[in-house]
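This entry is listed as follows:

___
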Amino acid sequence: MATKRTYSDGCGIARALDLIGERWALIVVRELLLGPKRFTDLHSGMPGVSPNVLALRLRELEDSGLVRRRKLGPPAGSRVYELTEWGQELEQVLLDLGRWGARSPIASEPYRSVDSLMLWQRSLFDAEVGGDLRATYEFTVGDDAFTVRVADGELEVERGTAARPDASMESDLETLTAVLKGRRPVAEATASGDLRLTGDTGVVDRLIRALKPQRPVAVA
């Protein structure tokens, strides 16, 4: 059995990388930030990882105290993975890392996970542009539903449907990404049938304006 690699360095950064520096480890954390997931749901948000490697990373994160398994009550009865309280503390680290990575001069790849698009909103929401916006949104991509709430200059995301959203959007991941990033007009996406929008289009426009894209860093 392979021994887990370590930097053997007392520096806090090195110790952190001993815990989450292996390939796919932080992506597992990203997929669990918005709530528990079954193994199959985790894998669907990480299509580039093999089931064996995903199982290994989950076991390592469990051994490190960052992830735990829990059995859901009836009628589901299935097992899910979730972050521990300590693991959840990585949220701000990942949001800052995502904000930093968004400025990469290397051309970006398409999103593979709807969770990552929801967290992108958390990273990029500009409170000054959002101003006094107070609204609740529901986003649905396939079987995944998310509630986004904006109030007091903060944007919060949670997994699940919204009780009384001001606007609801249902689409595929590619279209929703293009719309939220301002690359595709809302009116055009709805007219084509690629985006199903109900509710107040005004609060949708305000949200999109407040999701300010990061300019890539200049490389000499």
